[in-house]
Design goal:
402 residues; alpha+beta; 3-stranded antiparallel beta sheet; 15 strands; binds zinc ion
């Protein structure tokens, strides 16, 4: 009990779960699986919990275990082997710093495009010329579930209890709290499944959903795409800027468990007090900062403390002051790398604006204001400072400007 089990299908691992208990129950087994020609059934039953669906190629793990490229039967591995090899299959296993997710295969790219097309073209009910926020708020909530490695599908009662208060607090003031609408109508987005209840023309009432034990959530494909951190950051940025522009992003993202996506630096944002407080610390070594102080010094010296956005240098009694800003944040959920190509030298004001997504950097290095898209400045770049576009792009995604 407590062991972890991976599920294999068609050369992939498709889910993991924890074994909560083992038991024999012939009647239950017959009811669930029936019997074979000899009247035998599969009476050894495992009760599972913490089920997480994913989709990763099985080959790297099978090869590491010396099993060839095809899994034929139940295979047991020791806890030590599991610890050593888990990162090969488990997307939620800790990854090394600076490890980007692998480039998506062709099929995934297609799915990703489809998901983003659907997110961009959400049909939202217009309420007194203002678009309703029911669907976008629900989508953020559902993305929050994926980010927390929860199951994509959820029972109506849970949905009602969790999404209802969000609609009340973040919906248009004049719109009613009707969680059954997004539960049902998000199907038209092509991103959403509803199980347990048939389409009978009119949308089902709350009591019908409860009686049918209906469940809803992202479609398998959409969930697969949005479980990836890059796509997730882009999707959150897109939903917030396209549909929830006048909602406090930090507040709504915090409520759905996505607080880290409200700023470029990630979790541990502290409302702007004590900037160093935001630098994540390794668990167990509370005094050890993850960022390399040499790199911080290096970027500041390179620019002589002049802000790469506005060019100003903050003067102190004996010297100057500037801040090293990670473009793709070091903290959760961004997991950006601590390297020079992911750093900027900024004045405190522009550091906050960059971090809180008020400004972003375009492909041509123009620094634009996110609220209007207007060019404020041109980013100043030292000849020896190579800035990786992929990090700038990640930050733009958070800004809803991929
Ligand atoms: Zn500045």
């Amino acid at each position: 009990m407590g062991d972890e089990v991976l599920f294999y299908a068609e050369k992939k691992f498709v889910a993991k779960a924890r074994i909560l208990g083992l038991f024999h129950n012939q009647d239950l087994a017959k009811a669930v699986w029936g019997v074979d020609r000899d009247e035998h059934t599969w009476e050894h039953i495992m009760a599972l919990g913490d089920i997480v669906e994913f989709d990763v190629p099985a080959k790297p793990l099978l090869e590491a275990l010396g099993l060839g490229d095809f899994l034929r039967s139940l295979t047991l591995v020791s806890a030590e082997t599991r610890g050593r090899l888990l990162h090969l299959v488990d997307p939620s296993a800790p990854v090394g710093q600076g490890t980007d997710e692998p480039p998506p295969s062709g099929g995934t790219t297609m799915r990703r495009d489809g998901v983003f097309r659907a997110l961009s073209n959400l049909k939202v009910h217009i309420n007194d010329r203002r678009p309703s926020r029911h669907k976008p708020i629900t989508l953020l909530w559902a993305i929050g579930r994926l980010a927390a490695h929860q199951d994509r599908m959820v029972r109506w009662e849970t949905f009602r209890d969790e999404v209802g208060p969000l609609l009340r607090d973040f919906g248009l003031p004049e719109s009613r709290v009707t969680p059954e609408y997004p539960f049902w109508h998000l199907r038209s987005s092509g991103l959403w499944d509803v199980y347990g209840i048939e389409d009978q023309g009119a949308p089902p009432t709350q009591s019908k959903l409860a009686a049918a034990r209906a469940t809803a959530g992202f479609s398998r494909d959409a969930a697969k795409v949005l479980r990836r951190s890059l796509a997730r950051a882009d999707a959150i940025g897109l939903i917030c800027s396209r549909y929830l522009d006048d909602v406090d992003r930090e507040e709504v993202l915090e409520r759905v468990g996505l607080a880290g996506y409200a700023s470029a630096s990630g979790e541990l944002a502290d409302g702007g007090n004590g900037r160093e407080g935001r630098v994540p610390r390794r668990p167990g070594t509370s005094s050890q900062l993850e960022r390399d102080p040499l790199l911080v010094e290096c970027i500041k010296v390179m620019y002589g403390h002049a802000c790469q956005v506005c060019g100003s240098r903050v003067e102190t009694r004996y010297s100057h002051y500037s801040e090293a800003a990670h473009i793709r944040g070091l903290g959760r959920p961004h997991h950006g790398p601590d390297q020079l190509s992911n750093l900027l030298c900024l004045c405190p004001n522009h550091h906050v604006e960059f971090d809180r997504l008020a400004i972003y950097i375009d492909e041509d290095w123009a620094v634009r204001r996110n609220s209007t898209g207007a060019v404020d400045y041109q980013l100043k770049r030292h000849a020896d400072h190579v800035i990786e576009q992929k990090y700038i792009r990640y930050h733009r995604g958070l800004c809803g400007r991929p």
